[in-house]
């Protein structure tokens, strides 16, 4: 079997040509802001915890983190952390016996680590200015979008040191070495590559290990926003398959979720096909996405105060023509990597 036929996500392999139901199911939330166990108030970040097939949600204006078991259909969530000051994005570490939650508190310019059943969070790393996105690698290094200062920070739990991983401190711009209001991040398990939702530049940037500049892998390298298939508009969430480098993007202000194949010049819409709105095929400022153990797509639908689930309905192998296109893309990507590596 060729590598690009399938994507390993959770407990299921997802084809790069997979399709999801165009109409989402509301997993949590009523569409109206509220603070009961069935309601949310502007959810931002979400994180999937594979061992229990559960979803954790940064319930921004309710100052809490909610957890819902995806195997149940009650529509009720459990509060696992409360009294937070505007939690933005979260990462739930699923390598431990119990979930450990990392959360960015942008209004307090800090990141906290919450061990299971803890009564208090522990601040990690240095102060970050309006920190938003967060991710970990397999060595528990923490990567943080230091949004106001236009950079990505890396904190080591072994040395307790914080270093700059991408961007130039206090300098925003469209050049490949610069970022503009970065808000989302995905880090490969090895930490060799980080994918940044360069929100102000309406693009996704990949920064390889020891790189001094990023490479645009989705959207306009010139930092131009748009609403066509080749463009993004202020994306906030990004998720990457590490087998084939297929990128999934919360194209936030186009109110869509897009899939971007390696080395492609455009993406295709996999959710939010109906555009902006409250309908089952619509989204309103989606801020994050992830997948569950069954390959279903989960989306934080920020302005609709809900979490939407789009069921995986077609996971067939790519057709011969699709495989040829993807194969050429991968070969082009490998060729470019070799040129950059040895030039």
From TrEMBL:
Keyword Disulfide bond: no
The keyword Signal is annotated on this UniProt entry: yes
Organism the protein comes from: Adineta steineri
InterPro entries documented for this protein: 6-blade_b-propeller_TolB-like (IPR011042), NHL_repeat (IPR001258)
Ranges occupied by NHL repeats: 277-313
CDD domains with a match to the protein in the record: NHL
Protein name, as recorded: NHL repeat containing protein-like protein
Gene3D superfamilies the record matches: 2.40.10.500, TolB, C-terminal domain (2.120.10.30)
Keywords attached to this entry: Glycoprotein, Repeat, Signal
